[in-house]
Each structure stands twice: as C-alpha cells, then as structure tokens.
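Re: your question from the hallway

Yes, I did run it. Sequences:
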Amino acid sequence: MWDVVRAVLQAATGNAMTGALGNPSTKVIVLTASNTNLTGLAGLFHLDWILPGYQAGVCAPGGALVFELRQSQSTGEYIVRASYVTQTMDQLRNRTVLTLDAPPAIAPVFIPGCSIRNATFDCTLADFVALAKRVIDPQSADRAN
Amino acid sequence: MKTLLLRSVTLALYCAPFLAAQPADDTKLRQVIVFGRHSVRSPVAPNSYLNGFSARPFPVFSVAPGILTDNGARLETILGGYYRLWLTKEGLLTGNDSADAPFTYFRANVLERTRATAQAFAAGMLPGAAVNVNSYPAQDSDPLFDPVGAGVARLDQRKAIAAVKGRLGGNPQSLATAYASEFALTRSVLLGYPAGQTPPPGTPAGTADVTTIPIDVTAGGPGTPVHLGGLETVLVASDPFVMQYAEGMPASEVGWGQLTAGGVSQTSRIITLAFDLDYRTPYLAGVQSSNLASHVVRSMVQAATGSTMTGALGNPSAKVIVLIASDVNVTGLAGLFHIDWLLPGYQADYCAPGGALVFELRQSQSTGEYIVRASYIAQTLDQLRNRTVLTINTPPASAPVFIPGCSFRNATFDCALADFVTSAKRVIDPRSADLMN
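Structure:
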C-alpha cells in the first residue's frame, strides 16, 4: 500500500520519492491484479461498498478501487477521493458500450478515520497519509518498486 | 487445486510439531469481565404495531413489550450457574457466596430487561448472596451504554450518515437486492405463504409489506445513530422470531409454524446487517463504544496493578465484573476492536439472548505477566429453547476470539495486557470517553 500512498504524495509534491510508482509527473496509474488483492487493500483501510445487483464487497471482473488526487483551485490543498467503479453484471454480459451518459456503476467510498462528511467523502491528503501510517505494517512493506 | 492440496499437506507437516511444542497454559485467572446482552424478552414493539405487517396476528407473550420473560430470567440463571461452575473451577470463586459477593461488580443498563437479566445472572452465579446491581435511574442515560445520550460523546449526524452511506456506495437500496433471499423468506413468513412460491402472492389489504419500504440512511434519534428506512422496519418485524423460538413457544407459533431454527437464524441476517451499519461502522463504533472500552481496559489495569484507577469499574479487588446491556452495545464494542465470532446455528457476529463478550485477565504463574483472553459465550438456540442445564461437561457455545493487533498465535489467542492497552488506545476516541463511572 505504501506504493500507492507514496505515488500520490510524489504527484502532489512533484518530487521523486522512494517506494512510489511511476515518476512525479505520472497522472494515471493503473494497477491490475486479482479480487483477493483488492479485497486486501480495502480491508486494510476498512473500505466497504455495495453496487446494484452485487453483494457487499464483491470485486467484479474489471472492477477497481479508484483513488483520485484532487487539488482545490482556491486553497491549493490536496484531497483524496475514493470510489469503487465496476461494470454491472448486465453491462458485462451485454458488453455495453460505456460513456459519460452510460457509465459503469460507481460507489463513492467513505475512508474511515479520514473522509469528511461531504457527498464524495473527501479526505485531505495529509489525513490520508496519517491514516495510512496507522494501518500499514512497516515490517510488511518496503521502499523498492 | 493440486497446489492447494500440496500446501495443506505441507502446512499440516509444519503445524503438527509446532502444536505439540506449545507450552502448557500456566496462567491463572485473576479477573473476568462479562459484557452481555439481556436474555429472552418479548418483542420490543407492541403487537398492535407488529400486526400491521403480518397476515396473522403475532403470538402473544406473557409480558408487556420489551420485558424480560420468566423463561428469560430462568435461562439467565442457568447461564449464571454455568459461570459459577467455571469460575469456581478456575479458582476465582470459592463456593462461599457471601464471601465472594464483595469481589463482584454488577452493572446493568437502565432498561427493565437488562436490570432483571443481571439480577437473574447473579442468582445463578452467587445463589447464596444478595447482589447489588448498579444502574442509573430509568429516565437517565448510562454513560457506559449510551454515552451520546449522557453527553459524554457527541455524534455528528451528517458525518454519521456519510460514514454509513459511504459503505453502501451512496445507494442503500442496493441492500434489498443483496439480501433478496432474506427479504423473501421474511415476507413469506409475515404474509403466510410457502417460502419460494412463485410468483409470490400480493400483499393482503390492510397489511404493509415491510420488504418494499425504501431503504435509506437518514438522521437518527435517541439510541439510534442513523435511521435505515425499510431495513429498520424489516428488523422490527422479524425480531420476534428468535424470541419466539428461544422462549420455547410451540412450533406452530414460531413464525406461525413456518420457521425452523435454521430459518429463524437466516432471518436474523437482517438484524446483524442493520447493527453492523449502525454500530460497527468505524465512526459510529468510536463515538458509541469508546467510553465502554475505556472502562473495560481500565478495570483490567486496575486489577493487574492493584491500585485504584479513575475510569475503572468496581475496585482493584473486583474479580468478576458483569455488565448487561443490549445487542447493539455488544456489537459496538466488538466493532471498535474489529472482533468477530461465529457460533454453530447462529449468523456471524449475532448477539444471542444472554450471549456475552468475555474478557479474562490472566497471569502467568512463571513470569508474572498479565494476558487478556477474549471469547464470545452464548447458549445455542436449542439450549435456550430447551432450557438446557449447563455444566462444565455441557457448556454453552463458546468462540475463542482473536483480538486484531494484539492476539498472538496460540490456541486461545492470548494478548499481553500491555499490548491490549496499546490496541485500545489506537481504537478509542478520547473525545468520546470520560474517566467517570
């Protein structure tokens, strides 16, 4: 998980950081693994979701936890916004073309210990880092790519 | 599959010598904290309300709504009798009740059913002594069990709604599909047709179909951090089933003859779901259960050090601390520590009538070190229904509980007291706890 947090930090600070993915100007980081990996990361942060037609916490084919690093245009502050995005069972079965008007299913995700109470459950980058430090076991993480 | 099999075999080879090499348990029980739910009660909602959700009138209990039944009291005394045997065997009780009583501390939430349960438990555990059950006046909020009502903790309602909605993709109605089987079973029982009948019949005139009420997360009220719309109504309508079975009502009156023990258990998945959202959601567990957790931990430290500590229950020589409240309180404390259990016949994390989280404070006889050992102990549904007498050889169901961030890998998931204190500090929200009793 440090890789993800450090990649987000690297992008916010613009400085190369050990244990981060890509370089400081990387805008889109795509990590593809298996449902067990997603479940583990969500479990570490106590993240839950449910989407129409699925059971709670199901990792659908192609489904992803999405972390957005956003910056306030007025204050310059960085915030993290999390969601779980996946095609519905029928979008998968019907190979439905996805557009902004016909999007996949999206679950905004509240990050316990970090998210504030707005509709998108935003969490400041500083709070996200503090939270990550609380849940990450340093003996189970390294700083290499 | 082949790899998996190979791994299992390898694991077994590695584990066998390890298990054999485990040292014998050289710990002695010094204190036990029993945090339990009241025993069997009548439905909390009056039949005049419940009957609006069913094709047939709900069976009538012998006591007013929400009151501990005579059987409930009897069952709790049976359970207390088991603890008497167990704690005597452990050397914590002596068999001389009036000598043991001063080393106990009983505390019950303000409700009749919790106070009566504590008294019935005491009658089983210390039959020869008069035990005082501490409780706040009925109109007050006990800061241990209702810290928000008591003004010790403050709940930000908008944040509570966000924290719950943010576990549900912002769309709580998705739960109706995810729990379609439980909803269908509950509907068939309430409206009186065979489960699985297709198409399901319509709703009789004058009856409300609880399974179609929209599910939403909205601001809560006293004792309920958030309202869950229709999910709450399904919970209220299906809550009586467990009690009908446990009370020992004739089979024809358990879900009008449509529910076996397995069916009763399946309908309770709605209850554990609603409680998970209302009491295990991390923000809500922090607000609602930090004060209780703080008192539990401080009581253990007080017993281990022998020195009076603020915010502890009883005095430093208290050996048995019994706290009786409701399923929501037990769920909340478990949620705060991320503690889970599963007992035969019950759903995961279900709080059975009389069931309790049990924290043992034990001391190593060789090193003097204090350890905490947790378990969840409850009568099975059939032990309740049959009023089974419990003994050391016929015990209630017991689930050893691993305390995340603290327990180590022995069979009883022991956790050093010092680590338990550290774990507690990590999960307790200091703004939601005080140091008073």
